[in-house]
Design brief:
heterodimer, A: 14 helices, B: two-stranded antiparallel sheet
Chain lengths: 306, 270
């Protein structure tokens, strides 16, 4: 087991001691979300600005099933993953038709479409008020209502998700995706069906987003309209970028920093998105490369200065 | 027509500068709020309508110079994050300076009331907006097709390297293009204010629509933007007649259908 894994396992165990349980849980949920985006953005070079589509759709669908039909948690998680993957397949099919700037705009525009459907379909989604009263049933007979119990479940799923993502990234498919990122024409010349591979990345990324969406809905007991909004999509892009995209652990670090940052500033000031916007600009202008690179630069600087 | 105006502005910015401008919607909202305040200050609708877009253009110049210029060589991800961050700042700024509650703005006295068009009554101000937007679109078209600066801008969309090799200051071109796009967004916002009222998030819907128009039309394709803008607008109002709740979602539906049939967009070359 590598050092990075030890650090992550230690963090998983120690985090609830230092941070409020709901925030600690949210960090890992957001990390799962970020892992999915990173497969698209970091490994395939597809900048998706619509990840909230899959996150929100899964959260709404499963939230509805949990409320109306009282399905069990295992089924809820499975359906969430499936809904995330299917919605990503639909959106992805349209988006991979285009590349570059068009691609980004399409992911955004389709995100807006899903948002408006959620906004208008009030009988199911509750519109602007969100979908309240999502229950958190017990998992295989275990009561997970206690914050710490639920944290354990989420943390376990996160570690599992991280392991799966590592397997994906190191698999032949992962290597093909990286070759598309580095040189799309060459990947095509080598005989790979590039649009299909991109679509595969979309579906996998969507599945991660779906899982995160369901966990989110069960954490707060509500699916807010923002969960499917484009600001949410932007947040996960930001988190992945500050962590450092294209590295396996980047989004994990990023969601850590992001959730901590947004939780602390939102406690200070109601207009905290302003500070968030400023943070975006500052990071982009001065800290490109994210935490991972800043750390590397710091080490190089220390090394140089003796 | 307003959609066409937004689309053209975004198309110029995206085409010339090659960046995804997520602040376009926020600038649209800013145009509306500038109009609101200028009317209160000056008491004159027409002067305010002239100055508000110029104010937005000025802010656009600042944004381009301080924010976007250092990022031309960075990836789209960082450009996106920057403009997204800026849109958050502008939106929150509007909330702080004005208010989070929606406001309304009456059209000037001459443009109130309706006109009898024979078959139906039509609000006078909407008619004015239609004509004004059509003239502006025509003006933008003439500027881009018939003037030297317009030619440079079109050349900038085609081939930036060549333009700079010909001795044209590419940075000034970028600033000008960004400012022009912002002015168009500002005008669209200012014109919209008396129709739909003002709220800090008014730009978000518009941003999505502008992206659809650009995606349908092809980058830097002026004629395409006009046709796509009209198409989207007509589709939306037709659906609004029979099923009002779906009128926004249908725009994206139109886009999806077009992209399925013609992946390169209506007039796309790339």
């Amino acid at each position: 087991m590598s050092r990075a894994w030890l650090v992550i396992l230690a963090t998983v165990v120690l985090l609830p001691i230092f941070v409020r349980h709901s925030i600690a849980t949210e960090i890992w949920i957001f990390a799962i979300f970020g892992l999915g985006l990173n497969l698209l953005m970091g490994y395939t070079g597809l900048l998706s600005f619509g990840q909230a589509t899959f996150f929100g759709t899964a959260a709404y669908a499963v939230g509805y099933l949990l409320k109306q039909y009282a399905i069990n948690v295992v089924l809820a998680l499975a359906i969430g993953v499936a809904v995330g993957a299917v919605s990503a397949a639909l959106v992805g099919y349209l988006c991979v038709q285009r590349s570059g700037l068009y691609f980004i705009m399409l992911t955004f525009a389709l995100n807006q479409m899903f948002y408006f459907v959620a906004y208008q379909w009030t009988t199911v989604t509750g519109g602007e008020d969100g979908m309240p009263g999502v229950p958190r049933p017990s998992l295989l007979g275990l009561d997970i209502h206690a914050p710490l119990a639920y944290y354990s479940v989420v943390a376990l799923l996160f570690v599992l998700a991280l392991w799966v993502m590592r397997r994906i990234v190191e698999s032949p498919l992962g290597k093909i995706l990286q070759s598309i990122r580095d040189n799309e024409l060459r990947a095509e010349a080598l005989g790979y069906d590039v649009p299909r591979m991109k679509l595969a990345a979309f579906v996998l990324g969507g599945a991660f987003a779906g899982l995160a969406g369901v966990l989110y809905a069960m954490l707060f007991g509500i699916v807010p309209l923002e969960a499917i909004g484009f600001v949410f999509s932007g947040n996960v892009v930001f988190a992945t970028l500050i962590g450092g995209s294209g590295s396996l652990y980047g989004p994990v670090i990023g969601s850590f920093v992001f959730i901590w940052l947004s939780e602390s500033v939102s406690a200070i000031w109601a207009r905290w998105p302003l500070l968030l916007g400023v943070a975006f600009v500052v990071v982009v202008l001065f800290l490109r490369g994210g935490v991972v690179e800043a750390w590397a630069r710091y080490r190089a600087w220390r090394h140089a200065s003796g | 027509m307003l959609y066409a105006l937004m689309g053209i502005g975004l198309s110029i910015i995206t085409g010339v500068l090659n960046i995804p401008n997520f602040a376009h919607g926020a600038l649209f909202a800013l145009g509306a709020y500038f109009l609101f305040t200028l009317i209160q200050l000056l008491g004159n609708f027409w002067l305010a309508l002239l100055l508000a877009p110029l104010g937005v253009g000025l802010i656009g110049i600042l944004i381009e110079y301080w924010g976007i210029r250092p990022l031309y060589r960075a990836g789209h991800d960082y450009q996106l994050l920057l403009t997204f961050g800026l849109s958050l700042i502008v939106t929150e700024g509007i909330i702080i300076v004005w208010s989070p509650v929606g406001m309304s703005q009456l059209p000037p006295p001459i443009l109130r009331g309706g006109v009898d068009l024979g078959i139906t009554f039509y609000p006078r101000y909407r008619l004015f907006v239609m004509v004004a937007a059509a003239l502006l679109v025509l003006g933008a078209w003439l500027f881009l097709e018939r003037t030297r600066y317009g030619a440079i801008m079109r050349a900038g969309i085609e081939d930036k390297e060549m333009v700079s090799l010909l001795g044209i200051d590419i940075h000034r071109l970028f600033t000008a293009a960004f400012a022009l796009g912002c002015v168009l967004a500002g005008i669209a916002g200012a014109l919209t204010a008396p129709i739909r009222g003002l709220n800090p998030w008014m730009g978000v819907d518009m941003l999505g629509i502008a992206f659809v128009v650009v995606a349908l039309a092809g980058l830097g394709n002026l004629l395409g933007s006009i046709v796509a803008g009209l198409l989207v607008g007509v589709a939306q109002s037709l659906v609004a007649l029979v099923w009002p709740e779906a009128s926004v979602a249908v725009i994206f539906g139109v886009m999806a259908v077009v992209l399925l049939v013609r992946p390169q967009g209506l007039f796309g070359i790339r």
